[in-house]
Amino acid sequence: MRTARALALAAALSAALGVPAAARAEAEHASLDRSYERPEGRDRHWLLPDHLTAQFAGNVGFLAVGGGHAWRDDRVLGDLLFGWVPASVGGTDIYQLSAKVTWSPWIVRLGQGWKARPFTVGLQVTYLLGGEYFIVQPSRYPSGYYPVPTALHPGLTLGTSLTVPKRFLDVPVSLYAEGVALGHMLRVWAANPRTLGPADVFSFTAGARVKL
Question: Residues 14-49, buried b or exposed e (16+ Cβ, 10 A)?
Answer without folding.
Answer: beeeeeeeeebeeebbeebbeeeeeeeeeeeeeeeb
